[in-house]
Amino acid sequence: MVYCYKGLIGRIAPIIVHFSMILILVGTIIGSLFGFKAQEIVPKTEMFHIQNILTNGPLSLISQTSGRVNDFWITYTKTKTISQFYSDISILDSQGNENVRQTIYVNSPLIHNDIYYYQTDWSLIGLRFENSVKEIIEYPLINIFENQNKIWLSWVSSFNTLNEGIVLIIDNLEGYCSIYNSKGEFLGNLELNERIQVSQSLTFLEIISSTGLQIKTDPGIPIIYSGFFFLMISTIISYITYSQVWMIRKDEQILIGGTTNRDIFEFELEFLKFIK
Hints:
The chain is an alpha+beta fold. It contains three helices and 18 strands. Helix 1 (13-34) runs antiparallel to helix 2 (221-237). The longest helix has 22 residues, at 13-34. It starts with a strand and ends with a helix.
C-alpha cells in the first residue's frame, strides 16, 4: 500500500478557527468585567473629570485622572460641510501638572495609561460680547431642534423691554452668526470683532464652543484583535486544498483512489495525470 497527501496545512484551519473564537470570547468577557465607557461634554478651556459613566463592568476601576480642553476648532470643505473637528486636550496629574498633550480628531484618539480619549461630538453653548464700557456679556445658545440639527439661537433683548430685541442664529464655527428681528426678518450677518447696536453698542468677541469626548478603557481589546488576526489567518489557510491518494496492489491489479476537500474538478485533472 502507498499513501500520498498534499496540502496538510489546510486541515488545521478549523482548529485555528475555534482557537480564534475562544480568544474573541475571552477578550469580550474581560472587557465586560474590567472596562468602562464615559461621555463628557467640556467647554473650551475648561477642565474635566471622568464622571459621566455610561457603562462599566463589575470589576472596573474608574480612573481619577483629570484633563483640560485647551482648544477646539472645526475645518470645513469648500461646500461649507464639516471636514473634521479637533480638540487639543491635556491630561493632568493630581497636582495639576501636564503629563501629556495631544490634538485629537475622529478616529485618532489620545491614549494615556490604557485609557482612550476619543473625539465624538461638538456643540455651541454661548456668544460673548463686549459693551462700550469694556464689560463682557455672554448670551447662552440653545438648540430647540432635534439633536441631529446643529442649529443654535440666542435672544438679545433691549434694556427697555424683554419683548424687543434681535435673534442670533448660528450653525457653524466659521466666525459669524445671522441676525433676525423679532418679526423673523433677516437683517444680515454679524462677524467676529464687528459691532452691533441693540440698546447699546456690542462687539462680537467669541463663539463659545464645547467638545464631546468619549473616554473608555477595554483591556480585552488586544485579545479580541488577536482572535480576529487568527481568524483571518484561518480563512486564508482554508483555501489550501487538502488532497489524498491511495495505491493498493492486489494480486496483479493496482487500485488507485483519492479524495479532496475542495476544487474537485482540478483534483480530477490532477488525478488523471497521476494515473497516466
